[in-house]
Amino acid sequence: MSTSVKDPQELKAIYERRFKAERVRYRQRLWATLVESFFQPMIPPGGTVLDLGCGYGEFINHVQAGRRYAMDLNPKAAEHLDPAVTLILQDCAQRWPLADGSLDAIFTSNFFEHLPDKLALKLTLIEAARCLKPGGRLIALGPNIKYVQGAYWDFWDHFLCLTEASLGEALENNGYIVRRSEARFLPYTTINQPAYPMAFVRLYLRLPILWRFFGRQFLVVAEKR
């Protein structure tokens, strides 16, 4: 029996408790800024993109692409997604209902740590590689256990501990070439944190020297071989 949280109703309850309405609105504003100021150039114009572990659609609702998919197990995700986004409700370690080479990019933020073990991550990376076009990108953010340390376990649904190096090695072993690896990128979490002005967020993204002091999440960008 898996030790991960895979019951859709439990996931729904966890995220309803964790993200109150005001915090959800702030996160939507935050991700609109992150996409516009940093991530949009990584997505090919008119391309097809999948948000893996989409949550409430913070990324996929704001990115510009020809076709947009979102994958999650939480049924409440459907209430938050843009109508133009196609939602796939399933376990990411199972075969995806997408054709080989059909995606230009896969984005995932704070998701891999919710997988039960490294086998689930391996199966997910293999399936992602199948669906990516040659040269297609996988863009991954997540808590870096080197810098988060004990605070990592403050969340009930955290299981798999990763660093930028361990994820990079997993990617290199499963059909990818790592093109960018940042050990420190964004702060750890927005939970119980101030709602910063978006001007501050844009400034932070333009000054990587700040990442060294405040970054607790890694950023890894890899391409399919």
Helix-strand blueprint:
Blueprint: H1 8-18, H2 21-39, E1 48-52, E2 67-72, E3 86-89, E4 103-109, H3 118-131, E5 132-143, H4 145-148, H5 164-172, E6 176-182, H6 198-206, H7 208-214, E7 217-224
Parallel strand pairs: 1-2, 1-4, 2-3, 4-5
Antiparallel strand pairs: 5-7, 6-7
Helix pairs in contact: 2-6
Q: How does this structure look, described?
A:
By secondary structure, the chain is α/β, with parallel strands linked by helices. It has a single domain, classed as Vaccinia Virus protein VP39 (Rossmann fold, 3-Layer(aba) Sandwich). Helices cover about 30% and strands about 20% of the residues. The protein has 7 helices and 7 strands. The protein has helices at about 10-20, 20-40, 120-130, 145-150, 165-170, 200-205, 210-215, and strands at about 50, 65-70, 85-90, 105-110, 130-145, 175-180, 215-225. It has a 7-stranded mixed β-sheet. Strand 4 (about 105-110), helix 3 and strand 5 (about 130-145) form a beta-alpha-beta unit. Helix 2 (about 20-40) runs parallel beside helix 6 (about 200-205). The radius of gyration is 16 Å and the shape is globular. It starts with 7 loop residues before the first helix and ends with a strand.
